[in-house]
Design brief:
Elements lengths: L3 E5 L10 H14 L3 E3 L3 H12 L12 E8 L12 E7 L7 H7 L6 E3 L2 H8 L9 E3 L20 E4 L6 H13 L5 E7 L3 E6 L4 E5 L2 H8 L2 E7 L16 H8 L3 E5 L4 H5 L12 H11 L9 H8 L4 H14 L4
Parallel strand pairs: 1-2, 1-3, 3-4, 4-5, 5-6, 7-8, 7-11, 11-12
Antiparallel strand pairs: 8-9, 9-10
């Protein structure tokens, strides 16, 4: 694959939400044996967008290699990854159906486009502009560095970890549970200027301040219970889309009991979320699951089930899927 590179924004963007993307890039680079290169400088990227509006693909003539590129958000206007030399792997997709035609136009030059959400992919399939030979479902994954096996067990110092984007209903259940159970200890986090994330407990203990994703996972692995929900169930800007996010995999790889909120859709069906937890909508159900879990000082929490499940969702598996599709398309 000496004709390929993985394009990364890590030199220009160190935001917390991008850390897992950089971990995916590391696995793709290793598995596919292709180098990681820095994406365009933001100023060049802006100039490129201006040129594209003039229907000019000028800057990309200087690229000698093809590029695999994770894109955080699907766009519906001409942008810096709409090139014959780029294969985008789109992470988040929140465009409403009335913008689908504009999206297809915005990726018109790309030879292949990967969509991470099965829910979105099936909606795009129903659109008249959909080309089955161009668009592929490539699901999100867990970087291999977090791999576990059936013997994995972690010391569970805290009853619950409230990390990542909190679901407002589940967060209210945690707070109510804490008032009813004085010995209950959970970890939360907040953003502080100049310090990144500060992790703290409901008892006032400051654990650490860090923007490091390894610290985030380490603290997650110290919790008995973790909360997870699809974004669209709680956030209007998602336009009703409910994609399964990598935090679900992170919680399983931390051997946490997962309390979930989600709708039934193509994405939650694809990832078989109901095998781990029903969608919890009442405090009574929440309290029952919590009571059943936190009575143990350490838990293995179905490490065999978790490790078997995750074996199909590591990034190395996605790398193999990606390689097979590129070969099918004659791009390798």
């Amino acid at each position: 694959m000496n004709m390929w590179t993985v394009s990364s924004k890590r030199k220009y963007n160190d935001g917390g939400a991008h850390h897992i993307i950089y971990e995916w890039e590391d696995v793709l680079s290793e598995q596919l044996k292709i180098p990681i290169v820095n994406s365009m400088h933001p100023l060049l990227s802006f100039a490129d967008k201006v040129l594209r509006k003039l229907h000019c693909n000028f800057l990309w003539i200087f690229r000698t290699k093809k590029i695999l590129s994770f894109q955080m958000t699907a766009l519906d206007s001409s942008d810096s990854y709409n090139s014959r030399k780029v294969i985008p792997m789109i992470v988040d997709f929140y465009l409403p159906p009335e913008r689908f035609a504009a999206f297809f136009k915005a990726v018109s030059r790309n030879p292949i486009v990967f969509i991470s959400s099965r829910e979105v992919f099936e909606k795009l399939q129903a659109h008249p502009c959909f080309d089955a030979s161009k668009y592929y479902h490539l699901p999100l994954s867990l970087p291999d560095k977090y791999r576990i096996d059936e013997t994995s067990v972690f010391e569970k110092k805290y009853d619950c970890v409230v990390l990542g984007r909190p679901d407002s209903l589940l967060k209210s259940f945690v707070e109510k549970y804490a008032t009813k159970h004085p010995d209950f200890v959970y970890v939360d986090r907040r953003i502080e200027q100049g310090k990144g994330f500060t992790y703290f407990t409901n008892k006032g203990e400051i654990i650490l301040s860090s923007n490091n994703h390894d610290d985030y996972v380490r603290i997650m692995r110290s919790g008995k219970v973790g909360l997870w929900s699809t974004r669209g169930i709680d956030e209007k800007q998602c336009n009703g889309y409910n994609q399964v996010t990598p935090r679900f995999f992170e919680l399983l790889s931390s051997c946490c009991r997962v309390i979930c909120r989600y709708p039934k859709n193509a994405d939650t069906d694809f990832f078989k979320i109901t095998e781990f937890c029903p969608s919890v909508e009442t405090y009574e159900d929440f309290e029952r699951i919590m009571n059943d879990t936190i009575q143990y000082n350490t838990i293995q929490c179905n490490a065999m089930q978790y490790s078997t499940y995750l074996s199909n969702h590591y990034t190395s598996k996605r790398s193999e899927q990606l390689k097979q599709i590129l070969r099918l398309k004659g791009l390798l």
